[in-house]
User: Which sequence fits this backbone?
């Protein structure tokens, strides 16, 4: 315990501690904000052009990682941010079904919707299949396209 001879010094130290605590809390809230979520990506995105189906409707997968995908629907899709849906990705002759959370939605070209999907974390078998296909096909991500997408 620190003993202060002056009440003003004690009040100043307490005020400084409260200010520091407030700044730390503000920084944590800001860092966790959704608008900075792209800076916290958990895996490298690979640019791909794969056939897939969102809730049974055809779509194109434009980029894919072991944590999620960006898909463009071939038609209207009734999915909002925060909803859960199924994505079936066709890899070669096989297909892999993944349960996903919609992270964001963007109206693209007329009649098409762009979705950012995050894979549920407990699908290790399906994610392993995706990872194996990605690393066999891609080798290394296209850095120019990744920079363009960011």
Assistant:
């Amino acid at each position: 315990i620190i003993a202060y001879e002056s009440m003003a010094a004690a009040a100043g130290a307490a005020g400084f501690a409260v200010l520091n605590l407030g700044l730390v809390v503000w920084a944590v809230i800001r860092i966790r904000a959704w608008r900075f979520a792209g800076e916290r990506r958990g895996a490298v995105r690979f640019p791909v052009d794969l056939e897939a189906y969102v809730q049974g409707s055809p779509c194109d997968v434009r980029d894919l990682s072991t944590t999620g995908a960006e898909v463009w629907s071939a038609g209207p899709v009734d999915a909002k941010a925060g909803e859960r849906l199924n994505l079936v990705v066709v890899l070669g002759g096989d297909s892999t079904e993944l349960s996903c959370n919609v992270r964001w939605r963007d109206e693209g070209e007329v009649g098409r919707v762009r979705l950012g999907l995050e894979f549920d974390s407990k699908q290790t078998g399906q994610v392993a299949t995706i990872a194996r296909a990605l690393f066999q096909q891609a080798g290394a991500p296209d850095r120019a396209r990744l920079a363009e997408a960011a």
